[in-house]
Write a structure and sequence with these properties.
- This protein has 277 residues and is an alpha/beta fold.
- Helix content is 42%, strand content 29%.
- The chain contains ten helices and twelve strands.
- Strands 1, 5, 6, 7, 8, 9, 10, 11 and 12 form a nine-stranded mixed sheet that branches. The protein has a three-stranded antiparallel sheet with strand order 2-3-4.
- The relative contact order is 0.16.
- The N terminus and C terminus are likely disordered.
Length: 277
C-alpha cells in the first residue's frame, strides 16, 4: 500500500512538473527579459497578416503581425521566435505557456476573454464571401448561402458566425485558409467565409478561378483584430498595447499594412509568371 501511494504521488508530481499548464504563470515579462527571447505563436496562412515565403532557401514568416511582433521584441530588448501552428490551437498555446503571446489576426469574443487577455484592437475588419467564378450567378446575396456548403477556418469567428447565420447550410471547417481556397477551386465547397482583407489577398493570387461576392459583407460588431496573452501576464500586455498604440498614432500602422499588401501582391504576380513559364 505504501509503495503504491508513493508511486502515485511520484507520478502526480511528475505530471505537474511536465504539464504545460504548470508553467503558464511563470513566463513573466521579467522571465522573458532574462531569457532574452519572446515567443509569438501564429497560423501563417493569413496574408497580408502572416504567411510564409522562401528567403535564401529557408522558409520565413512575414506579414503585418510578424513586423508588429518584432517591434514588441525590440521594445523589450529580446529576440523574437515565431511558432507556426493551427489557428484553433493558438489560445491553448498562451494558456499553457508554450507561447508568450499570439498575433494571428485574431478577433475578440467573450469566450476567449474568459481564458486569455486581449490587447487593444489594431485592425477593424468585416467578413466576406469568396466563390468559384463558375458560381457567380448562383451566389449574389446572403440568402443564396442558406443551403450551401460553406468553408471556414477552424477556431475562427467565421466558424461561429457561419453556424449561427446559416443553420441549414453544411459548414466545412479546415485548419488552413489555403486548404479552403483549394477546396473552393476544385468545387468541393460552394463558398468560403473569411476576413475581407484576406479575401482580397487570396483572390489576387487566384483571380482566374475565384472572386468575392460583391457587396456582401458581414460586420462583426465594433471589434477587430487583437493580440492575446496569458491571463497572468498583464505586464507583457501593457507593453504590447504601448507598441500597438504608438504604431497607430504615428501613422506607421497604415504604412505597414500597405507594405505587406503590396508584398503579397507582387509575390502572387511572380508566382503566376513562374507558373506560366
Amino acid at each position: 500500500m505504501k509503495k503504491s501511494t508513493k508511486l502515485f504521488m511520484a507520478l502526480v508530481a511528475l505530471f505537474i512538473a511536465l504539464s504545460p499548464l504548470s508553467i503558464s504563470a511563470q513566463r513573466s515579462l521579467e522571465d522573458i527579459k532574462e531569457d532574452g527571447k519572446i515567443i509569438m505563436a501564429t497560423s501563417a496562412d493569413f496574408p497580408p497578416f502572416e504567411w510564409t515565403i522562401m528567403e535564401d532557401g529557408e522558409p520565413q514568416i512575414v506579414g503585418i503581425d510578424a513586423e508588429l511582433a518584432q517591434k514588441i521584441a525590440d521594445k523589450i530588448g529580446v529576440e523574437l521566435e515565431i511558432q507556426d501552428t493551427s489557428f484553433e490551437s493558438l489560445v491553448t498555446q498562451v494558456q499553457s505557456g508554450r507561447a508568450d503571446f499570439v498575433a494571428a489576426g485574431m478577433s475578440y469574443n467573450p469566450e476567449r476573454e474568459n481564458v486569455v487577455n486581449f490587447s487593444d484592437i489594431y485592425y477593424e475588419t468585416t467578413t466576406s464571401f469568396v466563390i468559384n467564378n463558375e458560381n457567380v450567378d448562383n451566389f449574389k446575396v446572403q440568402e443564396d448561402f442558406n443551403s450551401a456548403k460553406i468553408g471556414v477556418q477552424k477556431g475562427t469567428i467565421q466558424e461561429e458566425l457561419a453556424k449561427d447565420t446559416f443553420p441549414d447550410a453544411e459548414i466545412v471547417s479546415m485548419n488552413k485558409n489555403g486548404d479552403l481556397v483549394e477546396a473552393l477551386k476544385t468545387g468541393r465547397i460552394d463558398g468560403v467565409m473569411m476576413d475581407t482583407i484576406v479575401v482580397s489577398e487570396f483572390v489576387a493570387q487566384n483571380e482566374d478561378i475565384i472572386q468575392p461576392v460583391e457587396g456582401l459583407e458581414i460586420k462583426l460588431g465594433d471589434d477587430g483584430f487583437a493580440m492575446i496573452t496569458n491571463k497572468a501576464n498583464e505586464d507583457l500586455l501593457a507593453v504590447i498595447n504601448e507598441v500597438l498604440n504608438e504604431t497607430i498614432e504615428s501613422g506607421e500602422m497604415d504604412e505597414i499594412i500597405q507594405k505587406y499588401i503590396e508584398l503579397n501582391s507582387s509575390q502572387s504576380a511572380d508566382d503566376a509568371e513562374s507558373t506560366e513559364e
